[in-house]
Amino acid sequence: MNLTRPETTHDVVIIGAGNAGIALAARLRRDDPDLDIAIVSPEGLHTYRPLLSYVGAGLATLRRAQRPQSKQIPAGCTWYRESVVELTPAPVSGEVDATSAHQVHTNAGRRISATDVVVCPGTHIDWDATPGLRQACASPHASTNYEPTMASATWDMLKNLRQGNAVFTISSRNAPCPSVGLKPLFLAADHWRREGRLENITMTVLNENSDFTGLPRANNEIDSRLRRLGVHVRSGITVESIDADSRHVTTRDIDGNATHWPYDALHVVPAHRGHDWVADAGIARPGTGQIDVDERTLHHRRNDGIWSLGDAAQLGTASSGGGLRRQVPVLSDNLIARRNGKPLAARYDGYSVAPIPIDRRHLILAEWDRQGHEEKTLSFISLARPRMATFAFDLFAQPLIYWHRLLKGK
Ligand SMILES: Cc1cc2nc3c(=O)[nH]c(=O)nc-3n(C[C@H](O)[C@H](O)[C@H](O)COP(=O)(O)OP(=O)(O)OC[C@H]3O[C@@H](n4cnc5c(N)ncnc54)[C@H](O)[C@@H]3O)c2cc1C
Predict the structure, then answer these.
(1) pLDDT per residue over 169-180, tens digit each?
(2) 368-384 pLDDT, tens per residue?
(3) Does 166 lie in the same domain as 57?
(4) Does residue 160 sit in the same domain as residue 38?
(5) Ligand 1 centroid to 49 CA: how many Å?
(6) Distance between CA atoms of 261 and 142, rounded to whole angstroms?
């Protein structure tokens, strides 16, 4: 059977309908209502992923985190509910060329051509990067909030722990917003304290990064809170493997020494990787698998009319949904400028965020730019100190802002 369909053409094709793809499509429609935009993305449900951390702490349901994707696609955009399997960029001419078309191929045999292609399919869990991870997460003793279907299992595991070792790993390998791996620790610790079990539980964080956020002031707050709780922290190590049968994690330090960490409950922020078809298209930065765009303009370094943002892009800063608030208007402005033969003037400053609740009432919101300077949303106050208002904002207000403003391109 020949599944090949005739080629269709649009002005812009957006690959991926996550936070990045939907917010950008909506923004482009607002900025230039005449643009003919197609979105290619397979999932029928849209997940507000930051809420998964609260699902994993018994403070939200998965139902609250998900809505039908059909309701998120901006009016006027064409949605192909298919997966991209191949991208063929237009030949590199060496000169700025706004007319060459790129080809997008889907698993339904569709070929779509467009002069601008925005590649934002995120990253996915690299289950094979950590031997034993899959087997461990199939048991009741290990889980990850990074897989939506496992988030409520995280809470079952943590709430039922009476004593023993609770281990929390945080990968440095392409994991989105990795510091939220501290959320299950702090929220579970508060639960164990209220239940009178905290002193029976030894908590350990195995962090592949050298610190938790890009903001020193927030790191100090987090470190002092971890110290007060008696949490053992190992940073700059590599999580090498997990043994699901004997229930231990093996790490290796920079001197090559291996250490085994027994666990009774294990939460993992797993290594992630880019999509193979991105590497095959020749648009990834070697070694990272992420798309090799100019970190400021979000336009590809070599291929005219190829763009990226969100988790799939190599942006020289920690990826986060919060960072997309700044990336979306920049990409929209620059894409429209290129189509009109104008210079790419908008710049992304590397803004990123890490919201860390330190108990079930207070949250530290770290915000920083590419230079590691604090980038305050509210100029008159630093949110990098524990506050009740930011906790309530993160859990209750931010999801509403996401559905009703960010995904509407506002
Ligand atoms: C558990 C968790 C907690 C988080 N907490 C926070 C937080 O508190 N604050 C914060 O700022 N950020 C947080 N983040 C990070 C934030 O969710 C991501 O940075 C953000 O979702 C990135 O959006 P994206 O659109 O780039 O990628 P994604 O959200 O991954 O979307 C990618 C889209 O592409 C689609 N796709 C995949 N493959 C293909 C293909 N082959 N063809 C077409 N489409 C494809 C997918 O179906 C998906 O719709 C968290 C992430 C996780 C996992």
Answers:
(1) 999 999 999 999
(2) 999 888 888 877 778 88
(3) no
(4) no
(5) 7
(6) 13
- Token duo for residue 206: 């195995």
250 and 218 in one domain? yes
The tally of domains found in the chain comes to 2
Mean pLDDT for 135-157 is 98
Euclidean distance between CA atoms 46 and 31, whole angstroms: 24
DSSP calls for 374-391: B--SSTTS---S-BHHHH
Question: Which of 71, 187, 311, 348 to mutate for ligand 1's pocket (most ligand atoms within 8 Å of CB)?
Answer: 311
pLDDT at 6: 62
Specify if 307 maps to a domain: yes
Q: Within a domain: residue 395? A: no
Residue 378 inside a domain? The answer is: no
Q: How confident is the model at residue 305 (pLDDT cuts 50, 70, 90)?
A: very high
Ligand 1: which atom is nearest the Cα of residue 355? 8
- By C-alpha distance, which of 226, 265, 262, 234 is closest to 358? 226
Is 222 domain-assigned? yes
User: How remote is the CA of residue 279 from the centroid of ligand 1, in Å?
Assistant: 19
The 10s digit of each residue's pLDDT in 23-81 is: 999 999 999 999 999 999 999 999 999 999 999 999 999 999 999 999 999 999 999 99
Going by CA atoms, what residue is nearest to atom 38 of ligand 1? 121
Cα–Cα distances in Å, from 318 out to 2, 196, 322? 43, 36, 10
Residues 82 and 179 both lie in one domain:
no
Q: Say if residue 113 is in the same domain as residue 134.
A: no
One domain for residues 102 and 176: no
Of the three residues 292, 312, 339, the one that is the final residue of a domain is 339
Q: Is the confidence at residue 96, as pLDDT, over 60?
A: no
Residue with the smallest CA separation from ligand 1 atom 8 is 50
Instruction: Give the residues across from 9 on adjacent strands.
Output: 113
> Can you tell me which residue has the tokens 């993992």?
268
> What CATH number is given to the structural domain containing 335?
3.50.50.60
Q: Do residues 132 and 236 both lie within one domain?
A: yes
- The answer on 195 and 85 residing in a single domain is no
* Residue 248 to residue 391: CA distance in whole angstroms: 33
Given a cut of 60, is residue 94 above it in pLDDT?
no
Nearest CA to 238 out of 141, 329, 130 is that of: 130
What is the residue range of 184's domain? 126-271
| C-alpha 389 to ligand 1 mean position (Å) | 26
